[in-house]
Amino acid sequence: MNKIVKISVCLLGLFMLANCSSGIKNNVTRFHQLPTPGGETIEVIAMDVALQQSIEFGTYAQIIGRKLGDMGYNPPEANRSQYVAEVAYNIMPLSGTVIDNGSPISIGMGVGSGRRRGTSMGFGLSTSFGSSDNQAQFISTLSLNIVNLSTGERLYEGHVESINRNQNLAQIMPFMIEALFQDFPGTSGTSNTIRIKPE
Asked: How many CB atoms sit inside 10 A of residue 180's CB?
């Protein structure tokens, strides 16, 4: 039994290592004519005004605001700002899609005990090499526009898509934000695949 436990732990460790090493895949597209940040004030707002008071939006706005600060921008002064960062996000299922980037290994373990002394453990290992998994996938999206308020000119457009099995947008959003701000503002007119590894 101890041997089985050791084998199962090793396999589980390899599975987790392979899963983490690939990271969260994000497709990032950018278009911009953004001057080098020079301390301009910027406010993060929701594209959908109905979300402006949302606690969820406020959480994402704080993360984005910190990233903008790291890039050289400042928060609004006396409720006035030179720029606004417009944010939109969404998540939806992709029905009928085939997962082809998941791990080919599935591990199952179970430990049980009865009224009598002693425990029993079950262990299962399955592989899916050469097969397809038709589980549901979800597409999470994040859009960020930066607008010069004095001229109304749009200076930056960024868009991120992440397709995976996780339907919890709150868990995916930090990775999409991190991907969007890698090499910010990036090369205009390009699309890149950026993988963010969980810490």
From this structure: 24
Q: For residues 186 and 180, what is the distance between their CA atoms, to the nearest angstrom?
A: 9
193 burial via Cβ count (<10 Å: 0-12, 13-18, 19+)? exposed
Domain of residue 151: give its range.
Answer: 2-13+23-187
What's this model's pTM, rounded to 2 decimal places? 0.70
Q: What does the chain come to in residues?
A: 199
Identify whether the C-beta of residue 31 lies closer than 8 Å to the C-beta of residue 157: yes
Per-residue model confidence as pLDDT tens digits over 43-101: 999 999 999 999 999 999 999 999 999 999 999 998 899 999 999 999 999 865 544 44
How many separate domains does the chain show? 1
